[in-house]
Write a structure and sequence with these properties.
Chain A is an alpha+beta fold and 462 residues long. Chain A contains 15 helices and 7 strands. Classes of the chains: A alpha+beta (462), B mainly alpha (216).
């Protein structure tokens, strides 16, 4: 038997054992086996390995089942008592209400726990306007009234989120008209915030809302009035009409090994590499939160061509807290096809999951055309992913069910379990609907697809 | 070629249950305690076994198993009958285990073994490492020793390979179910299982003559 034939045969021996070869392939493999003693020997050895492996099962430990049942009972009972996971807590709802009002975005303010907030959420840290007295006030209050302080941060974060809204157009796209647009009530509670679960008394929620209002007024005053968030939202909405290539990517490359420095990134070209871990998972970092147009007072003079470390004209903040967004397809037969193609050769060539670094963030059109690149490895949403600057210091994990159109756009996103209206979870869902995944495969693209995605937002290691 | 026949035909036990399964789930959703017990009895040890394979520690696995069932019960409503319950539970297990490990190894990068440094060149990379025979010319190794070495070798495989091969050989799942659980294609499953078995085979290479004896 020729060596080539043997090599061809050996790749299928294992699947032959499992009865997983196509009838045609099975016939040809068996034909080869009849005349090749060596391959038969190989098959036998594999069979032995498989059999031995199948005997490896250990008996279950004692009390396993009763332990599970107890855990179920405790866990489910506990849930009845306090049915809010961290990301659904009413306080977060209050914070995300602000976020929602500002822009579609993500945000976490650990109001209940008040973790030290290290993110560069204040314009001053972004190289923005000099700290204003009101801000100082709100900082003082932080010490005395944690909740109010956190709310202040919530506002700051909402503002930052407005600034980081990923679909925001290039600064140049923001016209004075856009700034003029928009009303003052942008900070009003989101549409159905009232349906959000209220922990304890309901006036707690109202109180929060009032505080938000109050803080907003202070802020408006400090910023010269006019509802800056609204301006940004208008600008962001305008972004939807902006041509694709003008949309900046927020992902920066994270080399699989490098941990220390946020990678440089360039805006406007729409694509940057992202380090993949484990094929379907993305580790991206948001190294700077500023995405404000210079016109909106990110402080420094407008920068036409942002350099490394700068995002859309805002100098990179110094004490930034990068956020890592990782995601993983949990379910859906097409998970590969949606999140990325796993190329056989890749599987052959390199098995270390950390070694896969691939480009992402390529505009969808380019992805459509560039089959070669597309086949080169896992892909991620070609469109920028909203990165919650506000998530700094906080880890959010949620599972989302997505319905994707054939072009890769998201028709619907729903949290599992469903997120109440107005919650942070709902804000995340809404943000995700702006993502763009790989288009469906095949001529004309596949029909609608579903995808279950686990999403983790957390502070990236420095 | 007769050896091929009748191998590992255990199949997916869970698949046979079909209707029973959905009835059981219905009852669980309705809060029937006996149905819950039944479900735990049917799948508890398999989930534990898989968790053990993933985490390498039986106590840790016990903990994870509880977590998996809790997660599953919270989401019973989202279970779709297009996969078997066991497949679904395994998927939850895999994800929960990954989560756990992610938080463990956030600071220390987990060691990854490349199965082969250069594809095609045998005797390189992990295959070589796995294949190095333990000292001792002993041919008459007991089954237990083989198994111990196999278990050890399995543990040393990169996770995706270990998962694929144990879902196949230990749990008896078909490639399609494995693909569902791991979120990769059937072709990838096939290649992972094949390569994992190759690596294990190489590890047990010194037992070859004995192996031949036995299979006759």
């Amino acid at each position: 038997m020729s060596e080539r034939a043997c090599r061809g045969c050996r790749g299928h021996l294992s699947a032959l054992l499992d009865g997983e070869l196509s009838p045609r392939r099975e016939r040809s493999v068996r034909r080869h086996l009849e005349g090749c003693e060596e391959c038969r020997g190989r098959l036998e050895e594999l069979r032995l390995v498989a059999r031995e492996t199948s005997l490896l099962s250990e008996p279950p430990p004692e009390g396993l089942e009763s332990g599970i049942l107890r855990a179920l009972e405790d866990g489910l009972r506990e849930e009845e008592r306090a049915p809010s996971p961290a990301w659904r807590s009413p306080l977060l709802v209050a914070a995300s209400a602000v976020v929602l009002a500002g822009v579609v975005g993500l945000g976490v303010v650990g109001l209940s726990e008040l973790p030290p907030f290290t993110g560069p959420t204040r314009p001053s840290e972004l190289g923005g306007p000099a700290p204003d007295p009101d801000r100082g006030t709100s900082e003082k209050r932080e010490g005395e009234d944690a909740r109010a302080g956190a709310l202040a941060r919530g506002l700051d974060q909402a503002e930052t989120l407005a600034a980081t809204e990923v679909d925001a157009p290039d600064a140049s796209a923001r016209t004075p008209e856009a700034q003029g647009a928009g009303g003052v009530d942008s900070l009003a509670p989101p549409r159905k915030a009232s349906s959000a679960p209220a922990e304890g008394e309901s006036d707690g929620t109202i109180g929060l809302r009032e505080e938000i209002e109050q803080l907003r007024r202070q802020k408006d005053g400090a910023l010269g009035g006019g509802g800056e968030l609204e301006v940004k939202r208008a600008a962001v909405e305008g972004a939807d009409e902006a041509p694709e290539e003008e949309r900046p990517a927020v992902f920066a490359a994270e080399p699989s090994v490098a941990e220390s420095r946020p990678a440089p990134r360039s805006a406007g070209q729409g694509a940057e590499g992202v380090g993949f871990a484990d094929g379907r998972e993305l580790d991206a970092r948001e190294d700077a939160v500023g995405k404000k147009g210079p016109a909106e007072g990110c402080g420094g003079p407008p920068v036409a061509e942002p350099g490394p470390g700068e995002v859309l004209g805002c100098p990179a903040p110094s004490g930034d807290q990068p956020v890592r967004v990782s995601m993983e397809a949990v379910e859906g037969p097409e998970a590969d096809a949606v999140l990325g193609k796993e190329k056989r050769d890749r599987e052959q060539a390199d098995l270390s999951p950390r070694s896969r670094v691939d480009r992402v963030g390529v505009p969808a059109e380019e992805a459509d055309q560039d089959e070669a690149t597309r086949a080169a490895g896992p892909w991620l949403p070609p469109r920028p992913v909203p990165v919650p600057a506000a998530a700094a210091g906080e880890r959010i994990e949620m599972v989302l069910d997505l319905r994707l159109a054939s072009d890769g756009s998201v028709l619907a996103a729903e949290a599992v379990p469903p997120a109440p209206e107005g919650s942070l979870g709902a804000a995340v869902c809404e943000a995700v609907t702006r993502w763009r995944f790989l288009p469906g495969e095949g001529a004309g693209g596949a029909a609608e697809r579903t995808l279950r995605l686990r999403l983790v937002l957390e502070p990236a290691p420095r | 070629v007769t050896v091929i026949e009748g191998i590992l035909s255990r199949g997916e036990e869970a698949a046979a249950r079909g209707g029973d399964e959905s009835r059981l789930l219905e009852r669980c959703r309705a809060g029937d305690a006996r149905a819950t017990e039944e479900l735990v009895r049917l799948h508890g040890s398999a989930v534990h076994r898989f968790a053990h394979r993933l985490l390498g520690d039986p106590e840790e696995a016990r903990d994870l198993t509880q977590e998996v069932f809790l997660r599953a019960f919270r989401r019973l409503g989202s279970f779709r009958a297009d996969s078997s319950l066991r497949t679904w539970l395994f998927r939850i297990t895999l994800n929960a285990a990954r989560n756990r490990r992610r938080s463990w190894s956030r600071h220390r990068r987990s060691r990854t073994v490349s199965l082969e440094a250069n594809p095609g060149e045998e005797g390189q990379g992990a295959v070589a490492r796995l294949a190095h025979p333990a000292p001792g010319p002993d041919r008459a190794l007991e089954g237990r020793t083989i198994r111990a070495r196999l278990a050890e070798a399995l543990e040393e495989l990169p996770e995706e390979f270990r998962v694929a091969v144990s879902l196949r050989d230990v749990e008896g799942l078909d490639y399609r179910s494995i693909a569902r659980i791991t979120g990769v294609r059937v072709g990838t499953v096939k290649s992972r299982i094949g390569r994992a078995r190759e690596a294990l085979r190489a590890r047990l290479a010194d037992l070859r003559p004995a192996a031949r004896e036995e299979s006759r």
